[in-house]
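To whoever is on call:

I kicked off a structure prediction for a single chain this morning and the downstream step that reads the tokens threw a length-mismatch warning. I double-checked the sequence; it's 88 residues and nothing unusual in it as far as I can see. Pasting both halves so you can look.
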Amino acid sequence: MCYGFYCFICSCIFLLPSIAVTARRLHDIGLSGWWASLIILTYISPLLMLIGGIFFALIVYIMICILFIVWCSTDTKPQGNEWGLPAK
């Protein structure tokens, strides 16, 4: 069986919901939701290997992961934004 193919299909299914949830989280900390589109770069990292090699793709992937860990663990701003008041 081709488990890599099934993993790819499952990750594509979860791509849109993960971008939507991340965009909401970014709105909570005062950033644009368009930053969530960087998640797509983690899906096309094999193409980045063709451009700059495996080291380049790995560095980009790690930088994006660290960036999203920091953004998603940042505390919500206490004031409201254009999408409403914070849940806390």
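Update from on-call: the warning came from a stale cache, not from the record. Cleared it. Sanity check on the structure: The chain is about 70% helix and 0% strand.
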